[in-house]
Amino acid sequence: MANCSTVTEFIILGLSDAEELMHWLFVVFLFVYLTTVLGNAVIITVILSESSLHTPMYFFLGNLSFLDVGSSSVILPKMLSSLFSGQKTISFVGCFVQMFFFELLAGTECFLLAVMAYDRYVAICKPLNYSLIMSQKACLALLVSSWFASFLNSTVHTVAASVLTFCGPNGINHFFCDVPPLYKLSCSDTSRNEKLLLTAGVFVGMGPCLFITLTYAIIISTILKISSTERRVKAFSTCASHLTVVVLFYGTATFSYIRSLPGFSFDKGKIIPILYSSITPMLNPLIYSLRNREVKGALRKALWRKGNSGFH
What we know:
Blueprint lengths: L8 E4 L6 H31 L6 H30 L3 E3 H34 L4 H4 L2 H27 L8 E2 L6 H5 L7 H34 L4 H31 L11 H21 L1 H19 L1
Parallel strand pairs: 1-3
Antiparallel strand pairs: 1-2
């Protein structure tokens, strides 16, 4: 250990070393990032401008769009810069800042998706008490709780990782500073950190996922008891977008988490983290705008107003 030098920066190895691939990857991820920002910005703008969408469900959807823009912005600009310039280094502090904010935003999204499932449960299973249960104060409390729980989780992970010793090599076998690949570079004992990661995976990842699963089991059971086919279809349609987003997010995130456990290689399946960290945030606005009548209607109204104002 006496000959160990302290690491002051890391090298993010990225998706490929092939020079000819980097230009194509730059174009692809620039498109992904711009589409993510534009799509989610449109969703947020429509929700803010349309009074008919000032309801708990769309309040949470607007916040989901904000999280999607945030999580993409934590990863993709640095990735695009590396692809364009070929400069793959990131400072020690910069790496931990990126890790902290990604953990914060991804964790908040886990909790928020559970909150959105609860909102659908109250709307379908307790419709007469909906406005009382999902009051403005309650919605704000649920949102703040989601952020606070995730803030605690990301702070614990960042602090626990920052006290580890890094002697070299300093090449992170990933496309951003994530917790598991960072542990692999440490010359300290990371067994406690890995236990902490496993515990967080249960409470921050699997906990909300289990809650969503149980909630939807009750929701589906309630919907199937509705005698009117039209009302059943309408009830299912209000859940379809959220359920699609949940399956996309949790399906890819869970697979990515499993492959980060000891015994799995980071060289395999780097495409999976890209799906939940970059592609899913891009697809979410599309899912909600295509599968949600109210959002489609609000978009048409907004475009009609813009067209009319432009005409005059």
